[in-house]
Amino acid sequence: MLASFEKTPERVGWEGWDADIYRKGFLLLKRDEVKSNLMRLPPNARKTLRPRRRDGDLFHMEAAVRPPAWKTILAFAIIYFVWGSTFLAIRVGVREVPPLLLASMRFFIAGVVLYAWMRLSGTPSPSRRQWLAASALAVCIFVVDYGLLFWAEQRVPSGIAAVMLATIPVFMALSEIVILRTQRLTFRLALALLVGIGGVSVLVSRSLSLSLGEVPIDRAGAVALVIAAISWSVASALTRKLPLPESKIMSSGAQMLAGGILLALTAAIFGEFRGFHIQAVSRGAWFALAYLIVAGSIIGFTAYVWLIHHESPTKVGTYAYVNPVVAVIVGYFLGGETVGPRTLLGTLLVLVSVIVITTTPAKKPAAPPLAKPLQELAER
Q: What is the pLDDT of residue 223?
C-alpha cells in the first residue's frame, strides 16, 4: 500500500514539515513509513491532517478542520458580488480615463501590493524563468483580455460585457477538445457548446427576429469581447505548462505587475497619454479605479485564493455563473443600462452552457509509464 502527500502548507496553516515527508510535490511512501513520520509531526499538525482515499490505493492529505461558516459565506459573497460589480466600475472609469491606461493603473498598483505583501511574508521572489512565464501570461490575460474588455466597455453595456466573458469556459472546453485533448466531445458537451454559441449569437445579432426589439450592441465591442474570452482560455491552457511561482498570490502578483507595465507600454503605443489630463478626472472615476484595485483585485483575489484552499473547485467555480447575473442587475439598477428580452434570453443560454460545461467530468489523461508498476507494487 502506498500513500501520496502533497505540499500544502497554506491549506493546513503550518510550515516546516520534515523533509522526509515531502519534497516539493508529492512523495510516495510505504504505509508504515507514513505512520512513523506522522508521529514525528507536532500535535497541532496531526490534528489538522487526515488521509482520504483517492484513486484506489492512494491517499491524499487534506484539511480536516473546517473554517468558520461566516468566513466561507463572506468569501463567497466577495467573489460573487464584488467581482460581479467590477464591470460597472470599469464602465464608469473608461468614460474619463483611456481604457488601456486605466487597466494599467489598476493592475500595476494591485500587483505591487500583492508582490510586496508576499515578499514581506517571506515568499521568495520569482526566478528569471518564472518572471518570463508570468510576463507571457500577462500578455494573454491583461494586455489582450482585460485590455479589450476595458476598451469594449466604452461601446458595450457592462452587463452584456460580463455575459460575453462568461463564455470563457466554452472556449476552454474547445481548447481541451481540439488542442489539449483532455476532454471528449460527448453529446452533452456538444449540445452545451451549441447553446453557448447560440446565446452569444442572440446578444450580438442585428437580425430583427433575434434582437427581440432591443437595440443591437456595438459589433466591434462584441468582437473584442469574444477575442478577450478566447485569449483567457489560451492563458488557462498555458498556465498548466509554464514554470510559475508555487505561491498563487505571488504568481498572480507577478502577473499583475508585468501586466500593468505591458499595458502602460501598449497605452503609450496607441497614444493614450496624449490629451489625457489627470486633473480633469472626476472623483467618481477615481473612486471606480480605487474600487477596482482594492475590492476587485486585492480583496477579491485574496478571498478567491482562500476559498480554493478550503472549498471544492466546483463550488468556487460557481462565481462564473453568478458574476454575469450580478453584473446585469447592478448595471440595470446603478448604471441605468437597458435589460430587455434579448439580454435575458442570451444570458440564460450562456449560463446554461457554462453550467453544463463546468459540471461535465473531464476525460482522464493516460497514466504515465511509472504508474502501473507502482500500482502493482502497492497491491502486493
A: 93
d(CA 155, CA 151): 8
Enumerate residue ranges in the chain where pLDDT < 70. 1-64, 207-213, 362-380
Is there a contact between 346 and 204 (Cβ–Cβ < 8 Å)? no
Are 63 and 11 in contact by the 8 Å Cβ rule? The answer is yes
Which amino acid type is present at position 200?
Answer: V
H or E element: which one contains 3? strand 2-6
Entry pTM: 0.77
Q: What is the pLDDT of residue 370?
A: 46
> Could you tell me if residue 90 is left (phi over 0), alpha (psi between -120 and 50 degrees) or otherwise beta?
alpha
Identify the bridge partners of residue 52 per DSSP, sorted by sequence position. Answer: 60
In order, the DSSP letters of 93-110 are HTTTS-HHHHHHHHHHHH
What pLDDT score was predicted for residue 237? 79
Widest CA span in the chain: 75
Task: List the beta bridge partners of residue 29.
Answer: 3
b/e code 157-188 from CB counts within 10 Å (16+ = b):
bbbbbbbbbbbbbbbbbbbbbeeeeebeeeee
Q: What is the DSSP string of 200-235?
A: HHHHH---HHHHTTSPPPPHHHHHHHHHHHHHHHHH
- What's CA 276's distance to the chain center, in Å? 32
**How many Å apart are CA 55 and CA 364, to the nearest integer?**
12
Q: How far apart are CA 172 and CA 178, in angstroms?
A: 10
C-alpha cell at 204: 450580438
The residues with which 376 forms a beta bridge, in sequence order, are none
| Paired residues of 26 in beta bridges | 6
Kind of pairing, strands 26-30 and 58-63?
A: unpaired
Residues 6+ apart with CB under 8 A from 330: 84, 85, 87, 88, 158, 159
CB proximity list for 113: less than 8 A, separation 6 or greater: 253, 293, 298
Quote the distance between the C-alpha of residue 196 and its chain's center.
Answer: 19
